[in-house]
Amino acid sequence: MHKEFVMGNEAIALGAMAAGVEVVAGYPGTPSTEVLEAIAKRNNGTTYVEWSVNEKAGLEVAAAAAYAGKRTMVTMKQVGLNVASDPLMSLAYIGVKGGMVVMVADDPGPISSQTEQDTRTYGMFSKLPVFDPSSVDEAYEMIQTAFEVSEKYNTPVIFRSTTRVCHAYSAIDVKDKEEYYKREISGDGGSELAGDSLGDGTEFVKGSSTDFSGFVKDSNRWVIFPRLSYANHKMIEERLPVMGDELGELTYNKLTKVNNGRLGIACGGISYAYVCESVQELSENENKDDSNIISDISILKVGTPHPFPEKLAVRFLEGLEEVLVVEELDPVIERMLLMVAGKYHLKVKIRGKLTGDVKNAGENTVESVTDSIRSFVQFDSEKKSTDNRAEASTEDEKSNIAEDVPELPIRPPVLCAGCPHRASFYAVKQAMKGRKAIFCGDIGCYTLGNAKPLDMVDTCLCMGAGITMAQGFSVVEKDTTCFAFVGDSTFFASGITGVVNAVYNQHDMVLIVLDNSTTAMTGHQPHPGTGKTVMGDIVEKVSIEKILEAVGVADIRTVNPLDLKISVDTVKELADKPGVKAVIFKSPCIALFKPDNMCVIDSEKCINCKKCINELGCPAITVNEGSVVIEPSLCTGCGLCTQVCPVGAIS
Amino acid sequence: MSKSVILCGVGGQGTVLASKLISYAAMSKGYDIKSAETIGMAQRGGSVTSHVRMGEGAFSPLIPQGKADVMIAFEPAEAVRNLSYLKEDGVVVVSKKAVKPVTASLSAKVYEGKEMLDYLKKKVKRLVVVDGEKATAELGSPKALNVVLLGAAIASEEIDISMDEIREAISHKVAPKFHDLNNRALDAGAKLYNK
Q1: pLDDT, tens digit, for every residue of A433-442?
Q2: Which domain holds residue A640?
Q3: ipTM of the complex
């Protein structure tokens, strides 16, 4: 063991390595990305790591390797699991041989996602076990247990983390390489897992030896047919309650029961940390006025929300009168406690999101949790009217401070200075001036093209949707030119089938591929078009142009967007043609390739019309004491503004 | 004993390195340490914060409102934006130079940072305004702003980490060719606090 200061995602990566993971696949997505990157960077060459083309591909790669007896992991963000849900649902029935972890990062807030969906709910839907860590330290231990549980029950398991665990840092104890789990494969291919410890005293004893040496053909096991599905469904339903109580024994589930207490709080994930912090703070204040409502609260922490630890929940609920459930996203624990209370005829009031006692959208904070606990306690407390101190809620305190605050500048995220996407959007905007057009956007940095003054993203739904949505619009909006903007990584992830659909069904549309040769928004991961893998291998580049050609796109042009005139003329020309047309705007991401050039404004020539500011919205161009200036530390010399200035004052 | 430090600024200003140095120094001293960073969309020119919590009794990686002992602000408006995190007698080290957002240029709203500094002077008892531009120009690199601010914050003696412990952290966490620059920046910051 040694101490390391690591990010939550790095802790998950190191935990998976300590558990002997041998194959890792995934698709980048905030807040999950660093898990796979850390394994690629830190493994000693024994682990195969790949950025798959999308989450579905990644899950299938990891599943097959697990069929062959390897410990495997697939990583993604929550919306990625929607893409991978097809194989996930079937794999839940088929199961695996080697341990397989589906690592999914949820994003309460949401901070950088389309939805606030809850992967624990996916666990219930797919009937798979779910692990939910509450801290960086716990994530490191828990991912190791997840592999053991997966292998014991021959089922993939979901490891669901959230942003505030993924992107938190902590100094934790990390195993040395010699302490990593190593699969010992004996001569006959069998391997003993007897006495495999879960790290907390629970012994999982493997009955018979399993052949981990490779894939063993068995069509009754690996080929999904209705009869097999029926049999496995039955087995899974019988197994779930047993598994729920067995997982309930793990230390990740923790019950702090106060004898004769009447109130309880149930929580999971990062909310457990918030509850601990709030309870500590509130009880310190309480000690001063000599009451003990807070210190009499029983606390249940749920680390394995599915299958639900029912027995533990009964022990928690028995004797309590009211329970507050604090969790983010879906009311998963709340619904399960309601179920348990009904099933066991326990007379206890469950408060939470469903009763409006805890906010039902957005992320929790120590403040929001403290407010909820204060109200919860006051429902119960007779002295609520006298306790003025407790009544001063954080919101009030904040508004007191806020009274005389000067107006703060708004800082929305923007396309970087010199970003080639700005030039592409501007060219299309100029080309379509005065004409009816719909601009379908997609997921990536270029979603930021929606901001004023560009205002060039009319729709954004999910990965790859822009291409097919432009087709839907073209069917019903006859007098409109329908555009789809898609980034290079998104094109490979889920854009190609949409282009095939357009060609096959003879839709009229203009596809704009914004090719900056990287997956920029998630931190510059390579993809099939970059000719590099996550392990640094140089491979053949997959050509977007050739794909479009093969699919049968009528007219394909590749243009440098920083050349404004050619870009505008090309878009104008293609917009007038029937069928499926494509422009590939090719220019590298400015964050990867920073040229030393710089533009300057000749203040003698500048007429202060501010056209450069009002048309482009480049963060490097600002007004200083009334005159337009270019901030030298931000400008990359892309030259777009020099082509926009009506008097040629910028060079 | 526990100490909480909030660092705030605009995406790209280097808040992360400063928080890493504090965290590393705290870990080397054997303190419990938790921290959190803004990652993702906000990095593109948005407001960013780093939270660092060390010592016993911290559960959440994010600092609760009113609990930060020290704020290191890389930009005046960001200091004001996050001021509710600061405890009543907390220290604020703030860089004087305003970073203007695109929205201000577009709407022709004037934002120069002075009114933010005036507000801070009114509200914060222990305020250190650092002329970062001048200091980094003397050091020869605008990138050193983060360590200049860190030096001033360490000199306040509110973080329970010494200058030597940060120097040790620099030697482990920064590429060797930048050791000298960062150590000079640290000293320059400390001098600015003591002035």
Answers
A1: 999 999 999 9
A2: 595-651
A3: 0.91
